[in-house]
Amino acid sequence: MSVRIRIHPLLQDLANGQDIVDVKGENVGKCLADLDRQFPGMRETLFDKGGKLLKHVEIFINGKTTFPEELMAPVKDGDELSILMLLSGG
Q: By three-state DSSP, how is residue 37 classified?
């Protein structure tokens, strides 16, 4: 099964400049684990020490939010995940 992940521009340096990466997994968490396998360091950027997504990270499947399931949300062959990094400032 192949799923595509759109990489947020702030994370593209970790993905060797790629904006789209193919991964494998049956849910969002496994797809993100495969992303980290391919590009070590992604995990530390997306997750806290307890293994939860950081509060400023949002994951979408085919343009729809995965909240509140997030990591357990199922994916199927051909789906596209998007990683968004919420920014704030003032």
A: helix
